[in-house]
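Need Arylsulfatase's 3D structure for a figure. Predict it.
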Amino acid sequence: MNRRTLLAGTAALGTVTLGLSEGVAHAASKAVSRAPNIIYIIADDLGVYDLGCYGQTRIRTPHIDRMAAQGMKFTQAYGGAPICSPSRCALMTGRHMGHASIRDNFALAGGVVGYKGKEQIRRANLFDQEPTVASVLKKQGYVTGLVGKWHLDGYDPDAIPTRHGFDEFHGWLTQTEKTQGYFPEKWYDGTTLQDVAGNAGGGRAVYETDIVTGQSCDFIRRHRQKPFFLTVAYNAPHSPHITPAEGDYAGEPWGAREKAYAAMIEFLDAGVGSILQTLEASGLDNDTIVFVSSDHGPRSEPTAEQTEVVTFFNSHGPLRGYKRELYEGGIRVPLIARWPSRIAAGTTNGTPVYHPDLLPTVLGLAGRSVPVVTDGRDLTPVLLGQGELPERLLYWETYEPSFWQAARLGKWKIVRPVGSSRLELYDLTADPGEKRDVATRYPEIVRELSGRLVSEHRPSREYPIAL
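Structure prediction for Arylsulfatase:
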C-alpha cells in the first residue's frame, strides 16, 4: 500500500450490575494498579469477516491480525444498533436502544430539522449534559480526544464532542457538509473549521483515513505524560468505495468496486499499524489498552453492485442479514482488545458483549468507582482472565423501514420482524445463521422474552412507538 498519504494527513491540517436492563455502575477494578491509556478504534460498516483474524482470505489486515494474536478476540460481539448514529450513541452513553436518546439515524418526531442534500429531515442528538464515556473519564483525570466521525450531533450546533466530554475534537460533523467525504474540504479542530490543503474544489490531496490516522498519532505523542482516552472513528469502509490507491490489489482480476473496498480496509489496517507503532515508539505500549471494532454489520444497499461487493468478500460470513437489520449479520461486529502487559496473547472469547459495555468497562479498567446509569457490564474481569460475565439480556430496536426489535439471552435470540406482530426465536448455538425459527417449539421461551421486548422499551419523544 502506498504510505505517502499516511504522512500527509497531519501536515495538511497543521496543528490543528448494573441491572440486567438498567442500573448504577460502581465499576472499580482492584486488578489494575495503574490507570491505563484507552484507545477505541471504530470502523464504519466493517464486517466481522472482513478481517483476516476472523477468516478473511482476500483482504490483507496484518496489523489488526497482529492485535488479535497479541490480545483477545471476541467471537460474539455486537454493535449497539444496525446503523451508525444509534450504535455510536450506545457506545458513548452505555444505553441500549430501548433507553438511548438516539435510536435511529433519523427522528420520527422532535429532534432538529435540517437538510441532507436537498431532503429535509429530522435528526435526534445527544441531550445536553448527557453523560458519555469521555465526560466520565474526564472527571477522573483523563485527557479525552475524538478524531474522525462523531455522528451524534444531528443538526444541533451544541451537540458537539467538546460539549460532551472531549477535550479535543478533530473531525467531521453531520451538520457540516463540507467536512464529510473521503477527501473533505474542511475539518474541525475543536469548534474551528479548517481548510484541508489540496482538497478544495474537488481536490484529492489528502485522504480522510490518513487524516484520522495522522491526528490520532499526534494526540498520542502530545499526551503521553497523562492517562488518555482516545476514540479513533474511521469512516472506512463506508460507501462510496473510494481510495487514493488500489495498492497490491490493482493487479487482481476483480471489479473496480472490489479493489477499492479491499484497499479501503488495507488503508484502515495501515492506520491501526501506525497507531500501534506510535504507542511503541512513545514507550506507552504496555500502559495502553487498544480496542478495534465496528459500528454494525456490513452494508448491502442501496445498489445491487454494493451487495455484490460484500458478497464477494463474504463480509458477513455465515450470518443472516446486513446493516439496517436486526439479524446477526446486521448487528454482529469484530471486537479485539490488546494490552500487552495485562491481556493474555492469542485469547479467543465467546462471551456475548456489546457497545453499551464500553462505559462500565473503561471505569473498571481505570479502577474508578463512579455512579453512572448504564445498560452495560464491566468487561474488565473477562479481559484480564479473572472471571466471566453472568448471563444477561442484550436488547436492540431499530426504525428502518419501520419499528422492529430483537433481544438475546444466552443462546436464545428473539426477533419481532419489521412491521409484524409475529415473533421469531432462534437457538444461536445450534443455528448461528438464524435459518430455523423454533418459536412454535419453545412457547415458554417466547413468552419470557416477548415480555422483555416490552419492558426494555422506554417511550421516546423522538421515536413515538406504542407497544
